[in-house]
Amino acid sequence: MKVITVKNQLEGAKVGFDLLKEAMDNGAKTLGLATGSTPVEFYNQIVKSDLDFSDMTSVNLDEYVGLDGSDEQSYHYFMNKHLFNEKPFKENFLPNGKALDLEAEAKAYDQIIAEHPIDFQILGIGQNGHIGFNEPGTSFEETTHVVDLQESTIKANARFFKHEEDVPRKAISMGIASIMTAKSIVLMAYGESKAEAIKGMVEGKITEAMPASILQKHADVVVIADEAAVGLLSK
């Protein structure tokens, strides 16, 4: 696991963009994408670039259960707004949060991942160490699944909603085992609130209580983080 310390989110986004360009130059065809505030500047760098994504496929980590793709808080809407409307891909895949049979939707999404192996996966990390919506206690063997969001995650996401009670309580998320199939992983983290999670991920025991700690076992992980986020690391 390589840790790159940057001054701020803009510098981190530029480092992430350079890694993406290198991966594409080396033949990457499928990108695993994340939502939330962390990767927004990274997507801005992509939009401003002359990179062509018309032959690329994207597979997103997750989606809230119950939100239509046209809902402004859905991850479909987020991805269209921040990336897809400006940089069309050949194909874009996100879980369907409105599926009538959520378990069947999760299985179908596993099949999509199997058919489109992820070359380059972008991740953020939750304050409790979650990656995707894989909350503490999630099995490392879990593939795409329906998640009951923890209270800390609901509170963290409430800033995007008018009222906290509007925050969905469930999501469909790529599982930890699914994420670990990616050829390379770039995880971004900014701010002091992520410092405990970064320490647990990089230096802590590998445990399902800290989902991101499993990344210690992955062959190609780059962590891009600011000084506040790496502030508790001992090395």
UniProtKB/TrEMBL annotation:
Tagged with keyword Repeat: no
Active-site positions on this chain: 62, 128, 130, 135
EC number(s) stated in the UniProt entry for this protein: 3.5.99.6
Record's catalysed reaction(s): alpha-D-glucosamine 6-phosphate + H2O = beta-D-fructose 6-phosphate + NH4(+)
Gene3D superfamilies: 3.40.50.1360
PROSITE patterns: GLC_GALNAC_ISOMERASE
Record-linked Pfam families: Glucosamine_iso
Swiss-Prot/TrEMBL keywords: Carbohydrate metabolism, Hydrolase
GO MF: glucosamine-6-phosphate deaminase activity
Presence of keyword Hydrolase: yes
Superkingdom in the source lineage: Bacteria
Domain Glucosamine/galactosamine-6-phosphate isomerase residues, every copy: 21-220
Record pathway: Amino-sugar metabolism; N-acetylneuraminate degradation; D-fructose 6-phosphate from N-acetylneuraminate: step 5/5
Enzyme class per UniProt: hydrolase
InterPro entries associated with the record: Glc/Gal-6P_isomerase, Glucosamine6P_isomerase, Glucosamine6P_isomerase_CS, NagB/RpiA_transferase-like
Entry-linked NCBIfam families: nagB
Function: Catalyzes the reversible isomerization-deamination of glucosamine 6-phosphate (GlcN6P) to form fructose 6-phosphate (Fru6P) and ammonium ion.
Family affiliation: Belongs to the glucosamine/galactosamine-6-phosphate isomerase family. NagB subfamily.
PANTHER family per record: GLUCOSAMINE-6-PHOSPHATE ISOMERASE
Protein's name according to its UniProt entry: Glucosamine-6-phosphate deaminase
Organism: Lactococcus muris
Organism phylogeny: Bacteria, Bacillati, Bacillota, Bacilli, Lactobacillales
